[in-house]
UniProtKB/TrEMBL annotation:
Pfam families: Helicase_C, SNF2-rel_dom. SUPFAM superfamilies: P-loop containing nucleoside triphosphate hydrolases. Keywords: ATP-binding, Helicase, Hydrolase, Nucleotide-binding. Residues 409-592 form the Helicase C-terminal domain. This is DEAD/DEAH box helicase. GO terms for molecular function: helicase activity. The keyword Transport does not apply. Residues 51-218 form the Helicase ATP-binding domain.
Length: 972
């Protein structure tokens, strides 16, 4: 295809790029694939198509194994909905994954989401916003926050709801699952949901029932009918029936199935042991005994467990970390004693333990008001003195054994990197900002610092230190005019620090903020200076480096205090039970899925620290925790999951090979078309070469302001600027060109809306880049082409098709694909000298109508397939409910038999009479149920029939057509 198209070709291909394609095809995602800034693997594209293919579906479960990019799969669907102008999008995720989601949407899909939590929600309310959730950008919030704002969620007609780590909803069928039940009720009205989980089935088949019911209550009947059909031993037929019903709503891909596309490296663990000094051990003993006391005035009753957890962690981090927290607590307690206003303790400690706000989101302790009577004043004063004494002791500690061990560990780990051929870079994680400052001071005096400490970079939740701001300003200046700059200072500072680390740094010292939303594939050394007790947090940390695109094995260093039995046991638990530090795939998804919320593990470990003093007690406590976790991992259920949710490797790989080709072809074709249209519309304004162009001046009639405001509201897209644009981007200083870029939107809009009068196009076959054998017989001939845009609406879904018809001057109709092939040829346009005869126009229109009828038949057959799938689902749902009613009668029959048997063997007359009375009551209940059975079955059938009638109404096609152009053609 020539770079410069005729006006008619440009219009046709502009519609080709922007039309709404059938939802079950890769073609429908092509524009999104071009825009996505990530190397997409075929299983991710396949999952996104699966999530969107049936317009009648109320949602799906995407259950790929850990590490296969379920976030990317959901991101593709989110981007697709965004492109379709469906912008009421909600993402519910564990609190510690909110920032990661926010960053992934910006980096990979160019979408600016908003994290909504108590603070930002209240700010928006104070600003006069009645419904803070009602915004035309993706909203990201935690499960806890979504539960508390369930009434808000009910009031919004969401276009899409994504629930990450959705296994925590799998027990929604249980009466005590408050979050699950609340969210299910709040989101019942939503017609499109995506649940993401690596472990949809852990302990019971009823969990599948629970997850599926979160999407659609009409896939299965009630819990009793599901239990009677599937939860027992069951027949082979019932098992196959369950598998078939799940296949329409759940898709799972395994890591081994995608290995042809994803190269995995391994993790290698190094344990760095150390022994604290006598002063450090004395401080630990004093603070530990303090935390074990039953009545502490410094810890609010409703936050005791939470704050204790934080203090145990800070105590293990560094003397600086615990000193700061102890000082904070003493000052706050002093204010309370003086009856001054004191901040919430969790808020004041947030500066010491940065991830506290996210832990609070998952914590269920209820904060209670703090009131002290006069008798307690002496105890408060004594406790303040104690806290100050502990702080003074911490402040006097000069030699930090763990800090010295870090220098030793760096030497060993960097030698290992050299063996592996990896770059000499390390990320060091700590849970405390004060420890981060101490480590900066320690390493600044070492050989790792480099000139002026330039080799060390800090990364935390604020990134407000002088060095970070200097790096940020230099980054802004270096990328001025580039679309790397999002306009969000927070996001741009994070990007600047990561780039500095990549290009100049040796060591990044990060708090928990560094485990979320940044990609460090160029770094192969992760050092857990503080080891989180939450396995999910550890997996997040290591996952910054051990991820798709990593070329080397990743070395993971952990510190273990030889003198602390509990610390040693924590490491053993994380290393042996969770398998976090060694192997190719990292944490076992069976275990990570089993624990639901990692905060529960933290709570249990904190209980052991608080209640167990002696080594044998500690050992017993951790053995109990190990046993609890072992009970969560049910081998029988793992086998059931394989049989129900996993397809044969060969079958999956064959499918993925096809998907890889389809997505690559669609992406390449769309990129080529976009550049051809852009070359045509910017002819005279830009110089084109290679995979991009240099914009030399803005076309008349457009402005930066109007373009950025019109099409991409609230998105981090830079104004149109002169300079180099590339697709895909290869030069760092080039602008990224994509379909959603305002300049591309302008070019496409200009092409689509242009008036294309009848004209003659002369196609040059000899100049085309390849052979098209079916067109060769028409060289030297001429004829006519009619192009129409056909809009088809059915099943609440809209799709657009371009229908081409072509004939020769002799009235010969060209075969179906030939008209489109003809438009690919290089062409010149000239005015039509002789009007097109009415007979020719009639012949063209008749053929076009024939093509349309054929197209509508195909669409109708496909939609009938979706319709039949939904009808079958409703039939099975109705049968399930009837079966449930019959099962209730069978259960009473069994109860009557047992009662009769018990009555017959009763030892006394009173007992016999009592059991016979119960028997009569049960028989009366059974008679009543039998009478009601037919009425209730009739009600179920009426509901089913009403739902099917609704579907039949949606099946009817509404067709609209728009003539784009009629041209005369000639091939030379």
């Amino acid at each position: 295809m020539s770079d410069i198209l005729t006006a008619h070709q440009s219009q046709y291909y502009a519609w080709q790029l922007t039309r709404k394609a059938a939802s079950d095809s890769v073609e429908s995602f092509a524009a999104t694939l071009v825009d996505a800034q990530v190397d997409l693997n075929p299983h991710q594209v396949d999952a996104a198509v699966f999530a969107c293919q049936n317009p009648l579906s109320r949602g799906v479960i995407l259950a790929d194994e850990v590490g296969l990019g379920k976030t990317i799969e959901a991101g593709l669907v989110i981007s697709q909905r965004w492109a379709e102008r469906k912008r009421k999008i909600l993402i519910i995720t564990p609190a510690n994954l909110r920032k990661q989601w926010h960053q992934e949407l910006i980096d990979k899909f160019g979408l600016q989401g908003m994290i909504l939590e108590s603070k930002s929600y209240n700010v928006l309310c104070k600003q006069g916003m009645a419904q803070p959730f009602m915004q035309n950008i993706p909203i990201i919030c935690s499960y806890q926050f979504a539960k508390t704002k369930a009434d808000d969620l009910k009031r919004i007609d969401w276009d899409l709801v994504v629930m990450d780590e959705a296994h925590r909803l799998r027990n929604v069928y249980k009466t005590n699952n408050v979050i699950g039940k609340t969210l299910k009720e709040a989101l019942t009205h939503v017609h499109s949901k995506i649940l993401l989980t690596a472990t949809p089935l852990q302990n019971s088949l009823l969990e599948l029932y629970g997850l599926v019911s979160m999407i659609d209550d009409r896939v299965f009947g009630d819990i009793d009918s599901f239990r009677s059909q599937f939860s027992g031993a069951g027949s082979k037929n019932s098992f196959e029936s369950l598998r078939a019903r799940l296949s329409a709503v759940c898709q799972r891909t395994l890591r081994r199935q995608v290995q042809p596309y994803v190269a995995y490296t391994a993790r290698r663990a190094i344990v760095q042991e150390f022994t604290p000094s006598q002063q450090e051990q004395r401080l630990s003993e004093l603070v530990a005994e303090y935390l074990r006391r039953p009545n502490l005035k410094a810890l609010p009753e409703g936050q005791r467990q939470l704050i204790s957890l934080v203090l145990w962690k800070l105590l293990a981090s560094s003397s600086r970390a615990i000193a700061g927290a102890l000082g904070t607590m003493a000052e706050r307690l002093q204010k309370l004693q003086n009856q001054d206003q004191a901040e919430d303790l969790a808020s004041t400690l947030d500066e010491d333990y940065e991830s506290l706000d996210e832990t609070v989101e998952e914590w269920e302790e209820e904060t209670k008001p703090e009131k002290f009577d006069k008798e307690e004043q002496a105890a408060i004063a004594a406790e303040i003195q104690e806290l100050r004494h502990f702080k003074e002791l911490a402040d006097t500690i000069q030699d930090d054994a763990k800090g010295k061990a870090l220098l030793e560990a760096l030497n060993i780990a960097f030698e290992k990197l050299e063996e592996l051929g990896a770059k000499q870079k390390a990320i060091i994680f700590t849970e405390s900002k004060r420890t981060q400052e101490y480590l900066l001071s320690l390493l600044s005096q070492s050989s790792y610092a480099g000139e002026g400490g330039n080799n060390i970079v800090l990364f935390n939740g604020t990134n407000s230190d002088a060095k970070a701001q200097k790096i940020y300003k230099a980054w802004i200046k270096r990328h001025e005019g580039s679309d790397k700059i999002t306009g969000s200072k927070t996001a741009d500072t994070r990007a600047a620090l990561v780039e500095h680390f990549k290009e100049h740094g040796t060591i990044m010292i990060a708090t928990e903020a560094g485990s979320e939303g940044i990609n460090l594939q160029f770094c192969s050394l992760v050092i857990n200076y503080d080891l989180p007790w939450n396995p999910q947090r550890i997996e997040q940390r290591i996952g910054r480096c051990h991820r798709y695109g990593q070329k080397h094995d990743v070395v993971v260093v952990n510190f273990v205090d030889r003198s602390n039995e509990a610390d040693r046991r924590v490491y053993e638990l994380l290393e042996q039970k969770f398998q976090l530090f060694n192997g190719v795939f990292g944490a076992s998804d069976e275990v990570l899925g089993a624990i639901g919320s990692g905060v529960d593990i933290e709570r249990r470990i904190a209980e052991i620290y608080r209640n167990c003093r002696h080594p044998d007690e500690i050992q017993k406590g951790f053995e109990g925790l190990q046993q609890e976790l072992s009970n969560e991992i049910n081998e029988r259920m793992l086998q059931a999951r394989q049989n129900l949710l996993e397809n044969f490797d060969e079958e999956v790989q064959s499918k993925l090979n096809i998907r890889a080709k389809d997505s690559q072809d669609a992406r390449s074709r769309f990129e080529k078309l976009l550049m051809s249209i852009t070359a045509t519309e910017l002819n005279g304004y830009a110089q084109f070469e290679g995979n991009g162009f240099t914009l030399q001046k803005l076309p008349e009639g457009i402005s930066n302001q109007s373009l950025t405001a019109a099409e991409l509201q609230s998105q981090p897209i830079q104004p149109i600027q002169l300079g180099r644009y590339e697709l895909p981007r290869q030069q760092e200083d080039a602008h990224l060109y994509r379909i959603s870029h305002p300049l591309a939107q302008w070019a496409l809009g200009r092409a689509k809306n242009r008036d294309c009068p009848k004209a003659k196009l002369i196609f040059d076959y000899s100049s085309y880049e390849s052979k098209i054998s079916t067109l060769e017989p028409y060289i030297g001939k001429s004829g006519y082409i009619l192009a129409k845009l056909v809009n088809v609406t059915a099943l609440n879904n809209e799709e657009q098709h371009l229908v081409l018809s072509a004939i020769t001057q002799d009235g010969e109709i060209l075969e179906a694909d030939d008209p489109e092939k003809l438009l690919k040829l290089p062409a010149t346009s000239e005015a039509l000298k002789i009007p097109i005869a009415e007979s020719m126009q009639r012949l063209l229109k008749d053929d076009n109508q024939h093509c349309q009828d054929h197209l509508l038949t195909i669409i109708n057959q496909r939609n009938l397939g979706y319709f039949d799938q939904e009808v079958q689902k409703l039939e099975e749902w109705a049968d399930d409910l009837k079966l449930g009613l019959e099962q209730q009668i069978k259960d009473i029959d069994q109860e009557i038999k047992e009662t009769r048997r018990t009555a017959a063997t009763a030892a006394t007359l009173d007992e016999k009479l009592g059991w016979q009375k119960k028997q009569r009551e049960l028989e009366s209940k059974r008679t009543k149920m039998r009478k009601e059975l037919f009425d209730r079955q009739d009600d179920i059938e009426l509901q089913r029939n009403a739902l099917i009638e609704q579907l039949e109404g949606q099946l009817e096609q509404k067709v609209e057509e728009q003539e784009l152009f009629i041209i005369e053609w000639e091939i030379v």
